[in-house]
Specification:
Layout (H helix, E strand, L loop, with lengths): L3 E11 L5 E2 L4 E2 L2 E10 L4 E5 L7 H16 L7 H11 L7 H22 L3 H4 L7 E5 L9 H13 L4 E5 L4 H15 L4 E5 L6 H11 L7 E2 L7 H10 L4 E3 L6 H9 L5 E2 L3 H4 L2 H13 L3 E2 L5 H10 L6 E3 L12 E3 L2 E3 L12 H7 L6 E3 L1
Parallel strand pairs: 6-7, 6-13, 7-8, 8-9, 9-10, 10-11, 11-12
Antiparallel strand pairs: 1-4, 1-16, 2-3, 4-5, 6-15, 14-15
């Protein structure tokens, strides 16, 4: 047993390498809260989460004023107990994005610390189910891009061994269909095309669009409706043969349970940064397995590669690099598949000098 004696907090505001536009937003920032925990033995665990440009300072305030002081003196190995205690400590602000993002930064740091003390990589400590996970790319499928750019990126991904690509939808129906069809014609039938609406549609629009997309053989329709519209997802699932994917905007294990119980989704895209950390992520993944539903997490590929390798029902890792500017090594890719790191910890080779250099002014604090 070793107790937590020090918590260091900092936030870095990363700029995406490409322009990212979807049906509801365009963003040019990835606020990345980073938590470093030191235990009484001097071992350090590093965790993180993210926003897409707003709310980062609120996350940091919650960490500094509430969560970090609450874990000083706690046994770092009691990850489940700490997660539950923090959940109830923030009961007035859960379930919600700010709290979940803050808790994720703490929880991932605790798992990193445990892995390092045991000398194990996360993918083995958390389950060790798979050695590699297929990749699909989203980086070339943004809504502002023209058909030629979509086709070019999809063909490159296919040539690189990726198994699929994702296209944003939300233009007029005939334009969406034309764009998807152009990519399908270029890549042929053996390459997956996924679509993502980013919660932009009403139920009638989603039903109509899903029928228009069905002949194009797409792998799933992601976030067609607002994430809290359970009844809408139930009705949509009854009206289309397309797999419906949800999860990046779901912040509690119970909400995922309701989706699965009501057959309202057939792909689970649980995001470790938005569900509150690795502890609840694993619960969602194993719950999905009992429903024979695949896990294909949203974003955070540098961390999700290890979690996907830990569970048997993970099918895809989404290729969107986030941490290139903060790490000394990139995620390993072989023949279009993501390979989890064998190094003890989360599998992320942090560049702490870069973190120091890119830290947002005023975001740094230490609690001990």
């Amino acid at each position: 047993m070793a107790r937590i004696v020090r918590v260091e907090l900092v936030m870095v505001d990363l700029k995406p390498k490409v322009k990212r536009v979807d049906a509801i937003q365009s963003f040019v920032s990835q606020e990345t809260p980073i938590v470093r925990l030191t235990d009484a033995d001097g071992v350090v665990g590093t965790g993180y989460s993210y926003t897409i440009g707003t709310g980062g300072h609120s996350v940091m305030a919650l960490l500094e004023r509430t969560l970090a002081p609450a874990i000083i003196g706690r046994d770092a190995d009691e990850i489940e107990a700490i997660w539950r205690d923090l959940l109830f400590l923030t009961h007035a602000t859960t379930v919600g994005a700010i709290t979940a993002i803050a808790m994720a930064a703490v929880d991932t740091a605790l798992w990193d610390l445990r892995c390092r003390k045991l000398g194990l990589p996360l993918h083995k400590l958390a389950g060790g189910a798979q050695k590699a996970i297929p990749l699909y790319t989203t980086e070339g499928g943004w809504l502002h891009l023209d058909e030629a750019a979509l086709v070019e990126d999809a063909l490159k991904a296919k040539a690189d061994g990726f198994g699929g690509c994702k296209l944003k939808v939300g233009r007029p129906i005939h334009e969406d269909v034309k764009r998807i069809a152009a990519v399908r014609e270029a890549v042929g039938p053996g390459f997956e095309i996924f679509t993502d609406a980013n919660q932009a549609f009403n139920l009638d629009q989603a039903i109509r669009r899903s029928r228009a997309y069905e002949p194009l053989d797409i792998g799933w329709l992601e976030e067609p409706l607002p994430a809290d519209d359970m009844s809408g997802h139930i009705r949509l699932s009854q009206h289309t043969s397309l797999p419906i994917a949800v999860g990046e905007s779901v912040y509690s294990v119970s909400h995922f349970r309701e989706y699965l119980q009501h057959n309202a989704a057939s792909i689970v895209q649980v995001d470790v940064g938005r569900i509150g950390g690795i502890t609840p992520w694993l619960k969602v993944a194993h719950m999905a397995e009992t429903f024979n539903v695949a896990v294909c997490p949203h974003f955070l590929m540098e961390l999700h590669v290890s979690l996907c390798a830990a569970v048997p029902n993970a099918r895809w890792v989404e290729y969107i690099p986030q941490l290139d500017d903060l790490t000394t090594e990139r995620m390993r890719i072989e023949a279009g598949k993501a390979i989890p790191s064998e190094q003890p910890g989360l599998g992320i080779a942090w560049d702490f000098s870069a973190i120091d250099r890119l830290a947002v002014a005023g975001s740094r604090s230490t609690i001990q």
